[in-house]
Specification:
With about 80 residues, the chain is an alpha+beta fold. It is built from two helices and two strands; from the N terminus they run βαβα. A two-stranded parallel sheet has the order 1-2. The longest helix is centred in the N-terminal third of the chain and has 19 residues. It is globular, with a radius of gyration of 14 Å.
């Protein structure tokens, strides 16, 4: 606990995915005060043609109240 799932289009290298997992782990440790042994990070590749149905409609639109970062907005543009 916590377990983070990153959904992304195929094509990123294993090195890129590992770097992202390492960065997420580091931030979770620093921000939430969990030990590294408590954190897991998964990468789930979703084909571009499946993204709208499998990710956007099912997870983003239906659960928009759970989003802390919504698509279409840059972090620096969000209200503080």
């Amino acid at each position: 606990m916590p377990h983070v799932i990153v959904k992304l289009w195929p094509g990123k290298s294993e090195k890129q995915k590992q770097s992202l997992a390492d960065a997420i782990t580091k931030d979770v440790m620093e921000i939430l005060n969990y030990g590294e042994e408590s954190i897991s990070v998964a990468m789930e590749e979703v084909k571009p043609q499946d993204w709208a149905e499998q990710v956007y409609r099912r997870e983003i639109q239906r659960n928009s109240e759970q989003l802390y970062k919504k698509p279409g907005y840059r972090v620096e543009d969000l209200p503080k």
